[in-house]
Design brief:
10 helices; single chain; mainly alpha
C-alpha cells in the first residue's frame, strides 16, 4: 500500500525531482514514515497551498522542512485530540521533539530520505541533499546518535554509498568487510566504541579504511570516472595510502 501511495504521488508530479534516482537504501528512509498515507498526502497539499515557496526553494538543506522554522511555534505542544497527528504540531507547536518529527514527516511526504537522531538533551534530524547528507535543527553529525549508532557512522555509510554509486558496488567493496567484522566479533558494541581504527578489531578497522579511501577517491576523481576497485588488494590499498 505504501508503494502504491508513492507511485501515484510520483506519477502526479507531487514528489521531489530526485525521488526516482534514490537507491533502495535511501528509499527505505522515505517509506518508513509513521504517518498514514492520508497524512502524507495532507502534508503535501498543505505545503503546496500554504507555502509553495518552500517547495521550489533553492536551499537544498531547508527545502520543505523550513516550514518547521517558520510555522511551528517553539513551545510546549498542544495535543488537543487523540490520537496525536502531524497537523496538531503545525497548529499547536512543540519543542525539539515534535519539531524534528514534523521536519522528517514533511521531507518524507515529498520523497526525501531522512534519518532522525538524538543529541544530549535534544532531538533533531538529518536529510538527503544533492551535495550529501546534512543535519537540520541540531548540531553536526559528530554530536548525533540513535540507539547504538553514532552520527559519524551513519554519515560515513551515506558518503561511502554515494562514492560507490550503486548498491551492488557497495556490497562488493564494503558490505563484505562488514560481514567479516561481524563474524569475527569486531563489530562495535556500543556508542563508546566510536569510529577509531582499533587494532584489536582489524576487520572493522579495514572496513573503515576502505570507506575513507573510497570517499577520498570520489572527491579527487571527476564524477564520470569510475572508482578503482580496492577490495581484497592490500597492495593497491598501500599505494592509495602513499598517494594520499
Amino acid at each position: 500500500q505504501r508503494y502504491v501511495h508513492y507511485e501515484q504521488a510520483f506519477l502526479l508530479g507531487e514528489l521531489d525531482p530526485a525521488f526516482p534516482t534514490f537507491s533502495v537504501w535511501e528509499l527505505r528512509m522515505v517509506v518508513d514514515s509513521d504517518a498514514s498515507d492520508e497524512q502524507l498526502a495532507w502534508g503535501r497539499r498543505s505545503l503546496m497551498n500554504y507555502r509553495p515557496d518552500l517547495i521550489v526553494s533553492t536551499n537544498d538543506q531547508w527545502r520543505y522542512n523550513m516550514i518547521v522554522k517558520t510555522d511551528v511555534p517553539h513551545r510546549a505542544p498542544d495535543w488537543y485530540k487523540q490520537p496525536r497527528s502531524y497537523d496538531q504540531i503545525l497548529s499547536g507547536g512543540g519543542k525539539c521533539g515534535p519539531r524534528a518529527w514534523y521536519g522528517r514527516f514533511i521531507c518524507k511526504a515529498f520523497g526525501i530520505p531522512t534519518w532522525g537522531f538524538r543529541q544530549t538533551g535534544h532531538a533533531a534530524m538529518s536529510r538527503w541533499t544533492p551535495g550529501g547528507w546534512v543535519t537540520c535543527l541540531g548540531a553536526a553529525f559528530k554530536f548525533a546518535f540513535w540507539e547504538k549508532r553514532i552520527g559519524l557512522d551513519f554519515k560515513l555509510e551515506a558518503d561511502t554509498r554515494r562514492a560507490c554509486g550503486t548498491d551492488a558496488k557497495y556490497r562488493q567493496q564494503v558490505q563484505r568487510l562488514k560481514w567479516l567484522a561481524f563474524l569475527k566479533g569486531d563489530e562495535r558494541k556500543s556508542l563508546k566504541d566510536g569510529m577509531d581504527h582499533n587494532p584489536k578489531q582489524p576487520w572493522m578497522a579495514l572496513m573503515l579504511l576502505q570507506c575513507e579511501m573510497l570517499i577520498a577517491a570520489s572527491v579527487q576523481q571527476p564524477s564520470n570516472t569510475p572508482l578503482q576497485d580496492t577490495t581484497n588488494t592490500s597492495a593497491s590499498a598501500t599505494e592509495s595510502s602513499e598517494e594520499s
